[in-house]
Design brief:
Blueprint: H1 3-21, H2 25-31, H3 36-44, H4 63-74, H5 78-85, H6 92-98, H7 101-113, E1 118-121, E2 137-141, E3 144-155, E4 162-168, E5 178-184, E6 190-194, E7 206-216, E8 221-222, H8 228-264, E9 266-267, E10 270-271, H9 276-304, H10 310-335, H11 346-356, H12 363-374
Parallel strand pairs: 1-4
Antiparallel strand pairs: 2-3, 3-7, 4-5, 5-8, 6-7, 9-10
Helix pairs in contact: 1-4, 4-5, 4-8, 4-9, 5-8, 6-8, 8-9, 8-10, 8-11, 9-10, 10-11, 10-12
Bound molecules: flavin-adenine dinucleotide.
Residues 120-123, 128-129, 153-155, 198, 201, 206, 355, 358-362, 364-365, 368 line the site of flavin-adenine dinucleotide.
Length: 381
Amino acid sequence: MQAADAAALVELVGDFARREIAPRVADYDRAESIPRDLLDKMAGLGFFGGAVDPAYGGLGLDYVTYARVIEEVSKTCHVMGVLMSMPTSLVGGGIAAFGTPEQKEKYLRPLAEGTAFGAAGVTEPRSGSDVAGMETSYEKRGSEFVLNGAKAWISNLDIADFIVTFATVDRSLKHRGVTGFIIPRDTPGLSLAPYKDKLGFRPLSTGDVILQDVVLGPENVLGMEGEGFRVAMSAVERGRLSVASRAVGLSQAAMDDAVSFAKIREAFGNTISNFQIVQSKITDMAVGIRTARLLVQDAAREMDEGGRARQSTSMAKMYASDVAQRTTTDSMQIHGAAGVSPEYRIGRLYRDAKVFQIVEGSNDLHRALIAEMELGIRTKS
Ligand SMILES: Cc1cc2nc3c(=O)[nH]c(=O)nc-3n(C[C@H](O)[C@H](O)[C@H](O)COP(=O)(O)OP(=O)(O)OC[C@H]3O[C@@H](n4cnc5c(N)ncnc54)[C@H](O)[C@@H]3O)c2cc1C
């Protein structure tokens, strides 16, 4: 995308977020649901098109621009960043890379146009980080596939029209036994049970997905049989870029708030911005955010060049979410008691920043993966 067009799109998204989302985000965070009218307006502006191919209703953004757009909306509400990234990443990424033309027309196009939403069911009650250890199974009966099992912590349960999920034919085959499936919401045997009162990411409806004798035809298989682990991982890498971009946007918001507050709050006859301990925190925030943004842009460039970007997306996700957690903690400290008040948004940013360190592979897992790639135990691409 031309630099001027990319800058105009980022500006459009930022302007919409400040005008339309900012006045409502605290209320819908408390209410634990995303206002549908906001999503409809965003769909009208093409905000869900992301990097999806224009042939399927997307904007066809390069990943560098896409990451800037997700960062921009996340300065106001990163949960909107989740929804804007899903057609490109966790839900649509696997369909774009492995789906048939019919599946792309039926599922990817409405996602990119914002007329449908999806969920991605990877995590299970007894296997989160260890995706290949999943227990949800499928059995072949003639040309049909019968799925049984459960997924946990799956987002978008209130608005998802379908779920991209994964099941194994034989656990002893580990990742080679896993196949991807697309399950429409009204399929018999599929039930959804959202959790209530989460610490963070509250507007996202997250919960259990239960599969009891769910019967699917071959048109619901995503990719080839046994290819599901690759489908999941290709989507997850794009998802990690999204988490990292959202973490940068949220960190920027936390630092902006710390700077504004420090300039007006007085103590001991000074504004607190004059205290070097406060300044030192702001320095760490500024350096952390800039470094995290560079890592995000580096991973996005690698994806634009057609690479898998396995290590660079891991680095960006781990680093940016650690920066977000430190930045929001320091910003809370600078706010003093005001940070605990619902009058300020830093409390919400603080709660959400912690969750960034857990989702899309916990940071402890990423720390292990990055080293294993350096040691040659795993490949980087
Ligand atoms: C708000 C929210 C939304 C979510 N949305 C979705 C969704 O839409 N779809 C979906 O599929 N999942 C979703 N998840 C689940 C999320 O991706 C998982 O929580 C995450 O992958 C970690 O899995 P786990 O919680 O089972 O942790 P576990 O795998 O049980 O790990 C627990 C801890 O053990 C340690 N650990 C585990 N493995 C290693 C390792 N190899 N090396 C070092 N330490 C390790 C880490 O400290 C880790 O934090 C969501 C979670 C949350 C909180």
